[in-house]
Specification:
2 domains, 342 residues, Lipocalin, globular, single chain, 12% helix, Immunoglobulin-like, 8-stranded antiparallel barrel, 42% strand, disordered N terminus, mainly beta
């Protein structure tokens, strides 16, 4: 008899478990909160790569050079499909960016991220609709990068707005209803170049060896021009804007020449040789859909003066060598910014 009762109890427990499992497929287990799809990196921002000019499939500008857009996903959380039409309100959020700047850099205002939402570089609609039966909506952000100074660290801060009259609630978890977008426009030549073949010498003291930087970043100026920071100067230097060296590319899809120049007379910039570049494209042997594009800059040979590192003194540097940029491009994805494996 005891065995019979035990079997009955076990059978009832199994039925309850099965019923519970079945309910998980039909009943909402969480909440339908609204959140941005914008995971933060170690610096507290979401890096967003946006083409300097958005082009169509024929390579023509969609709305003109220097103008682009990005569709930022907004997600409805939960274990079941959203069954209502939701109008999500989005607003510029300078307060969150101010908090990030103070917590990360404290009184070092020279290192603060700059608010992109306070200028003329960006616009976005106040509302975005997520349709019934859909769990993702896209906030279409428009950019006008013409004249942008990429020596500044641009961030677009956004927030999902709550109101009792709205038919949704933003996700209460930290950062989910906020987006801090570190916007990085790119063109065909910008990006992180390998700097191990670019030698930096103190002029007149070349015998004591060269200074190297593993990575040299090229920032967008316009469709065919980028700038580097002179020598081994990088984004962490507070007076970096004084040390911009421009590189204007002229040529075709396989290579051409580069004009190096500077617009700060205090640099005493001298270009000793005309630089050239070549582009090599090859398909990956393991992933045949992946194309590797290399941009190799040769014959770099210039001089500049560092006039701020040592108060009251100037140091002349000689920079010689080459730079190489590698981009891995998924040829199965039509949108360039999504196809590049950043």
């Amino acid at each position: 008899m005891k065995k019979i009762y035990t079997s009955i109890v076990l059978a009832l427990m199994a039925m309850l478990i099965c019923t519970s499992c079945n309910d998980e497929w039909t009943e909402e287990q969480f909440e339908h909160y609204i959140a941005f799809s914008s995971p933060l990196d170690s610096k507290g921002v979401t890096v967003l790569y946006v083409p300097y000019s958005r082009k169509d499939s024929d390579g023509n500008f969609r709305i003109g050079e220097g103008r682009s857009n990005y569709e930022l996903p907004m997600i409805v959380s939960g274990s079941t499909t959203n069954e209502q039409k939701i109008t999500v309100h989005v607003a510029h959020d300078p307060d969150t960016l101010n908090v990030l700047n103070v917590e990360r850099y404290q009184s070092r205002t020279d290192l603060f991220y700059q608010d992109m939402g306070q200028g003329s570089y960006v616009s976005f609609p106040e509302t975005t609709v997520i349709e019934s039966g859909e769990d993702v909506g896209l906030l279409d952000i428009s950019f006008d990068f013409r004249g942008i100074d990429m020596s500044k660290k641009w961030v677009l801060p956004l927030t999902i707005v709550d109101n009792p009259s709205y038919n949704y609630q933003s996700n209460p978890r930290k950062n989910y209803a906020k987006a801090l977008l570190r916007v990085m426009p790119f063109n065909s030549y910008s990006g992180n170049y390998s700097g191990t073949a670019l030698l930096n010498y103190i002029k007149g003291d070349e015998g004591n060896g060269a200074i190297l930087a593993n990575t040299i970043t090229g920032y967008v100026v316009d469709e065919n021009t980028i700038f580097f920071y002179a020598g081994t100067i990088n984004e962490d230097r507070t007076d970096r804007a004084n040390y911009k060296i421009y590189a204007e590319f002229s040529g075709g899809t396989t290579g051409g020449v580069i004009r190096f120049y500077a617009d700060n007379a205090n640099l005493a910039f001298v270009n000793n040789k005309e630089a050239s570049y070549r582009i090599i494209e090859e398909m990956d042997a393991v992933r045949p859909y992946l194309m590797r594009r290399y941009i190799i800059i040769n014959n770099i040979d210039y001089e500049y003066t560092d006039y701020t590192s040592v108060p009251g003194s100037s140091i002349v540097y000689s920079v010689k060598g080459s730079l190489t940029l590698e981009r891995d491009i998924n040829t199965q994805i039509p949108d360039e910014d999504q196809a590049i494996e950043w």
